[in-house]
Amino acid sequence: MKAQKVRDLDDNALRQHLHEMDEQLFRLNFQMSMGQMEGLKKARGLKKDRARFQTILRERELAAENK
Length: 67
Description:
Shape: elongated
Distance between the termini: 28 Å
Helix content: over 70%
Largest sheet: none
Low-confidence stretches: none
Strand content: under 5%
Number of strands: 0
Oligomer: single chain
Number of helices: 3
């Protein structure tokens, strides 16, 4: 997901998406540990998206503290 689309979401939606991503990553890591390597590319993309979501949430927290 692009950063601009993420910025358009509210905090609750961001946290909900983060929770869903955590569950997906857990499942993909489990599958990869069982020998199924199809999820490697998807796991990398999910990690990047998760980091993007967390960065935007942190930016909002810092902006709220400065106000």
